[in-house]
Each structure stands twice: as structure tokens, then as C-alpha cells.
Amino acid sequence: xxxxxxxxxxxxxxxxxxxxxxxxxxxxxxxxxxxxxxxxxxxxxxxxxxxxxxxxxxxxxxxxxxxxxxxxxxxxxxxxxxxxxxxxxxxxxxxxxxxxxxxxxxxxxxxxxxxxxxxxxxxxxxxxxxxxxxxxxxxxxxxxxxxxxxxxxxxxxxxxxxxxxxxxxxxxxxxxxxxxxxxxxxxxxxxxxxxxxxxxxxxxxxxxxxxxxxxxxxxxxxxxxxxxxxxxxxxxxxxxxxxxxxxxxxxxxxxxxxxxxxxxxxxxxxxxxxxxxxxxxxxxxxxxxxxxxxxxxxxxxxxxxxxxxxxxxxxxxxxxxxxxxxxxxxxxxxxxxxxxxxxxxxxxxxxxxxxxxxxxxxxxxxxxxxxxxxxxxxxxxxxxxxxxxxxxxxxxxxxxxxxxxxxxxxxxxxxxxxxxxxxxxxxxxxxxxxxxxxxxxxxxxxxxxxxxxxxxxxxxxxxxxxxxxxxxxxxxxxxxxxxxxxxxxxxxxxxxxxxxxxxxxxxxxxxxxxxxxxxxxxxxxxxxxxxxxxxxxxxxxxxxxxxxxxxxxxxxxxxxxxxxxxxxxxxxxxxxxxxxxxxxxxxxxxxxxxxxxxxxxxxxxxxxxxxxxxxxxxxxxxxxxxxxxxxxxxxxxxxxxxxxxxxxxxxxxxxxxxxxxxxxxxxxxxxxxxxxxxxxxxxxxxxxxxxxxxxxxxxxxxxxxxxxxxxxxxxxxxxxxxxxxxxxxxxxxxxxxxxxxxxxxxxxxxxxxxxxxxxxxxxxxxxxxxxxxxxxxxxxxxxxxxxxxxxxxxxxxxxxxxxxxxxxxxxxxxxxxxxxxxxxxxxxxxxxxxxxxxxxxxxxxxxxxxxxxxxxxxxxxxxxxxxxxxxxxxxxxxxxxxxxxxxxxxxxxxxxxxxxxxxxxxxxxxxxxxxxxxxxxxxxxxxxxxxxxxxxxxxxxxxxxxxxxxxxxxxxxxxxxxxxxxxxxxxxxxxxxxxxxxxxxxxxxxxxxxxxxxxxxxxxxxxxxxxxxxxxxxxxxxxxxxxxxxxxxxxxxxxxxxxxxxxxxxxxxxxxxxxxxxxxxxxxxxxxxxxx
Length: 1076
Hints:
There is one protein chain. This protein is α+β, with helices and mostly antiparallel strands. It has 31 helices and 42 strands. It folds into five domains: 170 residues, Calcium-transporting ATPase, cytoplasmic transduction domain A (Distorted Sandwich), CATH 2.70.150.10; 183 residues, 3-Layer(aba) Sandwich (Rossmann fold); 205 residues, Calcium-transporting ATPase, cytoplasmic domain N; 96 residues, no CATH class; 207 residues, no CATH class. It is elongated, with a radius of gyration of 46 Å. The two termini are 72 Å apart. The N terminus and C terminus are likely disordered.
């Protein structure tokens, strides 16, 4: 970024600023130094120099302007008259910050751990569970979706420099070598002579050398809407308040002016503000800091618990694989997967509610920040007030009357038939250039738009309400000539033909009361002109001070009936060479105006105070006006005094008053300029009610930084470009939607659509509600984490079966945390004391009840985990002596069905929990009618096994294997994956087309069993069956010349029954043995 540079301030010859170079190591320090320089007050002395000194300084002829060669030289060294954009962050970097920053990184770690756990299981197991894979995918999806949403929200804000660029004029009229030429505004250089007229935008900071009725609108810069007069005269030490300087990007609303360019581009006042606003680093929001603290806390707890139980599981004899799975499970159980999505959804819903209440939120985190606000630095004009000047009081006939601004004039406190009031109203209506805009006949007078400055518009509306149509009054008293208001005379004068005198004229004048009074020798009382004696002058002075003390702008009014013999109709009045009297006039009265406070503001300020929020007024207005408004809206409470009030009450000098005795404080900008940071901090600490008046843009930023040094969360309101640095530096910047400039709206985090301070309080209420509910949300999330962790701990320590799987944890986190979270609801949810304990106990109660219903009382579960998980265990007894068998869904092919012999109910074997891979002599328990029978009449893959001579067991043959029985019955069992089970004379099968040879006395397996049965020969006798080799993990079980086998780790124990050799095998119904 090009460093801001100012021309020399000592009056010496101007030389273009040289560019500076930066190295990587000192870039940050250089930037901080530049920002500190920008925060200082504008240090110019060009407004104090005479025209000759100014010409010598900038080497310019004040009549011919710069030469083309000199202009080109300055342009080459200073650069174009444009604002330098700051370095921008690439969009992909912004997106990655949203995707991997803050709480998202914890979820990414959880997702990676889940993928790691799944990878370990896949490498160590033939058929690993997919739970960890699903959990990792969902965690990644949650982070990506919320990251995209946050990036979209951020992309809509932070376009500050684009708004500044829109304010730069495109063309400028300059004088070079004695000729007027139209050039691109970027080519304007320091020293150029520039001319502006009504409707033009000022192309650079200019020192006025000549003007005619020039007024500029500084609202884009200062936020103050009333046009400011510009003239060559030096009127104020502060260059921002003197009338002989025009500023870059302000609008000339009327008149013409010629000036010398004294600053261009980044060196203009507007350029300094733009550089300051775009260069300030925004601090982290309270919610971001809270979430970061929460992440550190949760991560520490998760890692500590994970490592602790990893070590404990190794000590208790678990394998390293099981220990790693435990470690990952505990860490993932601690990650509140649903919190990020919950916070985003909650902030979005609250932002929509706030938008319906005229608070447009640009940055979602600003919703919660507004609720954390402890100090509000509010502008006065348009925020605390209506931004509409209104006549408040009148003084005539030696009495102060309150103006009636109601449409029906029901609140009038004076006699409208008074001739003095009629004369005062006529002056206010005729000596007035404001007019109503056309097409507003059906709109109430107070809400009509006008063309003219704010004070004259207020007078126009007051007279329209009280006396009727001002236009008719002006038509009956046509204007002959006028002298516009100027800073030298400080009055406005016009001469009109008199309605009641066909030959006469009336001169009417208004202006600064003291200037009007000194031109008068008489005063109008009760319709009669009387001499203006000392008594009436004292009465005038008392009324003037009283109205001024109310913070109102006071104007004086006088008139003079011109004698018809000297000034008949047709007389040529000359406003330049005045040929009519401007003294010895008749004083008529005073009228005072004020920008009235908004009706809802006092109540809103009271709510802020009761909520512990300090409201500070920061305005560019006069201290008396600022203090009056502050008292009117409650920023300075009734009964609280400033140092000046205490001094006046005790009749002692201000210096003798202890500042700490005053709760209220009014600080002038000139005093603030000389204060150190420590002095400002002392004021902010020791005074609860503070008003800053006549402040500059840099001072507003300094005030915000001072409040932040006190640990306050600061909200700042503003509408002008000058407010943009403070808006950006504040914890939450609030711009005005109606009167605010584009730059202020871009710099702000929130926009008030109705420009009303009361809407801020509404936003604070919403923000505090979400602040409380977000705390409850975090507590609510943590309450689900404790019940998620506890099952893992009891699983390891107490050796009970695992009550809560990974997918179940995911359902709890993304389901209950989001759907049931209190923050989703706009109501204030009640506090849940010890909620984690209630949830944990409720979960374990349900777990133990379900297992007790199936035969396992809580005492039986302790220490049973290893036998429960071991699939080779087929004789696990429950609390009632029932034996439980291990089942495997892969033992039956898909589509296999079981049919009850009693009720003919058929159910699938591949998914149900009832009976998988049930073999010989295993009791079947119907899921429909609870009838229990032996294994006869089983339906298997649509092929029914039937043996006419014998009651057979469930025959399970491999593909294309034929079984021949000694009783001369043959049948087949096609497409079955289970190992052969038969009756009487045992026959075994191996995989893929093995022939079986069976005799009554012996059974010999002639073919090699598969890779798991290494050429094992089976010898069978009438009374015993001996297996000569172990068959992998699934051992053959035999009895009474019967062999039993199980594939895929499904082990079903055999009911030992002895039968005679060669006799048909009949089963006796055993006691039911439910599967696990």
C-alpha cells in the first residue's frame, strides 16, 4: 500500500513526495507506523496562508495555472489522483480459512481419526464395521457445508474500497497555461487551478481562492446534512472546519468556486480515511474467542481421557488394536459434532428475525457480538435525533412560546391572531428559499420533502402549518431582490412588493440574532413599533441565552417598510451595490430550531442503562447542542451534573472542581486533541455519562480504541465516510441505512434500515438472547458428551457389553443436538441443572432394562464382555440358566426362510435376530407364535428336504452335492452354503463337487477339505465319532455317529443324544436356547 503523504506544513516550496520502499521484515512495523500517522489529526496550514504565499509554495500562477510540463512532472512523481487499493486476500485463502479455521479444525481431526480407525479395522479384520467410515464422512460433510455458508456470508461484506472508488469524480475542469480544459480527474495534480460549480464533485482537496454563493454538501465526509458555505476567508484554526477548504469527493450544491489543489489521492482527507479504514485490522469477535477457548478445553479433555484409557486398556490386557480403537472412540465421543451447525443455524435464524425489526446483519457473528455489547458510541444526527430540523420555540412580544408542530395545531400556546406573530411569520415565509417538492399534496406537511437547507425547511413547514400556504403568501408578495446569506454579513435579506400597499415594498431580514439586533433601532411589541431600549436588549439577551442553552439554533428576524416615495414600484434595487437601507430596522422576534430526539430513544437509552450498557454520544455538533440532546434522550440523566454545572452552581471556577465529583462529562474535540491516552482512559473510567462534541474522524477512532482498552465490547454507529475507520475498528459497526454513505455501510457489520437508535436496543435484546442460548447450547452439547463417554469407560473398566456404538453417537450429536438445541427456539429456554447426569442415568437405565428383559440382570453383565464378544462361545448362560448361542448373518444365504410347523409363519433368516445357521438338534423358536420345535420340517432356499422313511435333521449340503442314505432314500439340497449335516450315518462334504461314500459302520471322507480342512480323514464308529484333525476355528462336533460343523464363526453347541447304530435319528425337544 502506498504510504499516505502530506505536503510540507511549514510554508516552504512544495516538492512531490518520494515513494518509499519496504522490505519483508519491516513491512508490519511500517504498516503500524502508517496507521498511527493516519490516526493523527490533519495537520495543514494552507488555509492560513495568503494567496501570494500559496502561489509561491505550489509554484503556480494564480491566474494562468500550472504549465503542462510542470503538471506532468508532478503527476509522474506523485502518481495519479486515485485511491490506492489495499492488498487483497485471494478468495481461495478466504475459503480455506472458513473451512479449516476455528471449531472446524476439531471436527476435521475427528473425521481423520474416524478414517484412521476404519483403516486399521479394515487391515486387521476380514469384514470390518463401517460405523467409523460413516461417522468420518458425516463429520467432513458438516464442516464443508458450514464452511461454504460462512464463506458466502463473508463474501457479501468487506467491499470498502469499492465504495470509496464510487465517490471519485470522473472529470475535472482545470486551468493550465491560461486555458480551461476538461481532464480526467485522475490527472489532477497538486498546484492545479480547479473550478467547480453546483452539481460537481470536488476532485481533490482544494484551497478556495474565489467563490460566489458556493455551498458544499459534506455529508459524505462528515455525516452532517446541512450544506456548508465556502469562501476564501480563513475562519477556523481547524482545517476541517474552516470555510476556505473544499474536500475531495464532497459535492458542490450551489454557486461556483475556484481553488488550488493542495492534496491528491491518498494524501487527501478522504484518502487518509480510506487508507485508515481499509488498513485497520479487525479484532476477533467474542463468540470466536469463546469457541476457541471451548476448542482448547474440549481438545485437552479428549486427548487426556483418550491417552489415559489407551494406557489403561493396555494394562488390562487388551490388544494394541483394541486400545487404539478405544482411544479414537473416546476422542470422537468428546467432539460435539453438531455444535458448529447448531451455532450457524441459530445465528442465521436470529439474523432473519432482526431483519424483520430493521436490523440488517451483514456478518453473522455480529448477532452474538451485539448481545455482548457493553458500550455504545452513538452519533447524534439521524440516530438519536430525527435528522429533520424543526422549529421548537419563538420569542416575540417579550415572551417565549413553544412551537406547535402538530398537523391540526391543537397544541398552540399563543394567540395566532397576534399582529407581532403575523409579522414574524411573514418574514420567516418570505425571507426563505426553501420550497416543497411537487406531488406531495396528500402527504402530511411535517413529512413532506423540501428543496433547501435544513433550517429554512423547518421554517417553511412551521409557517405552512400555522398560517397556511406559504406559496400563496409569496405570490401575493413577489420578491424583487435578495442578498443570500454569507459568512461575512451573517444575514439573509430580501425585498418584496407589499400585498396591502400597491406602491410599497417591505424589506425582510433574518440571520444571527446579535447581527440582526445591531441593525435595529426599534422592536415590534403587540403590533406596535417601540424604541429598542436597554431593557428590551436585556430581555432579548436573556431569551437568546435561554434558547441557546437548550441546544437550539436561534435566528433573529426584522423588517422595514420602505417609503413609497423613495422606493416606488419599478425601482431597480441593486444587491451588489446596495442602494437601500440595511440599518435602522425593526426587530420582530426570535425563532429557534432543533433536530428533535426520536420518540423511542429515551426509553431505549433507559433500557441500555438498566442492562449495564454505557451510551456515549460522539458528534460533530456544538457542545451546548450536544449536551442538550444528551439530556433530552437520557444519556445525561436528570440530576447528574458536569464539571461546568457544578462550577456554576457553586459559583467557583471550573478549575477548582474535582472532575471525579461529576458523573457526567462533556468533552470538546479541541480538548481531546491535546489529551494523552492515559487522560482519556481516566475520563472513560471515572464518568458514566459522556458526550464528545466537535470531534473529528480520527478522534472518533481514538475514542473507540480507548473504550476497548477498558475491556469494553464497543458498538459504534455512524453514517458518514468519516465514521468508517471507527465502524471497522469497533467490535460491531452499525451504519445508517437511510442517511448512511455507501462506505459506512460497507465498513459496518450491521445496518439500521430505519436509522433509529431504538432498533439497536432491539438488536441487543436479540443478541443477548442468543448469547444466553449459545451458552446453554454448549452446555447442552457437553451433557450429551458425558453419556457418550461413560459407556466406553464402563466397557473397558467393568467389562460389560458396549451399550453405545459409533453410529449411535453420531445420531445423538447430529440429531438431538441440532433438533432439540434450545438455541433453535427464539424463546429463553430454562436451565437444566445436572442435565448430563440425568441423560447418562437415563441411558444406562434403558440399557439395563432391555438386557434384563432378555435374561441378563445387571449383576450378570459385569465381567461378561469377553465371552459376549467371543463368537466361539456357544454356551453363554444368562441369569435364568438359559444358554445363548452366537449367530452370524452370513451363515445363511440371502433369501433363506424359516417356516414354523405350528402357525406356518415364515420369516427371513438373513436379517432377523431369531435363528441363523441353526443346525441339527437346535431348537427353533417362532417369532410369531412362540412355538418351539426341533429342526425338522425346515424350509431352505425353496428346496424342502424330505425323507419318507426317517425323521431327518436339517440337511445342509454344498452346491451339487448328492447324499445317499443307507435306507435307500436320496434327496438333494441345492445352493446352500452351510457344511453338510445329516442323520444316522454321518456324511461330510467339502467344497465344490466332492463325492461322499457312506456305510452303516464307518464314514470316510475321501476328498480333501478346503484350505481350512487340510486332508482330514474322518473315522466314524457306531458308538463314537473321532475327528482326527482340528478344523480351523470351527471344530467338528460329533456324537452317536453324528458330525456337526459351522462355517463363518457361527458356533452352535450340540445337544448330546445317543441312538442305536443305523437307527433313524429323532430329536427330543430341548429347552429353548435363544441366540445373541
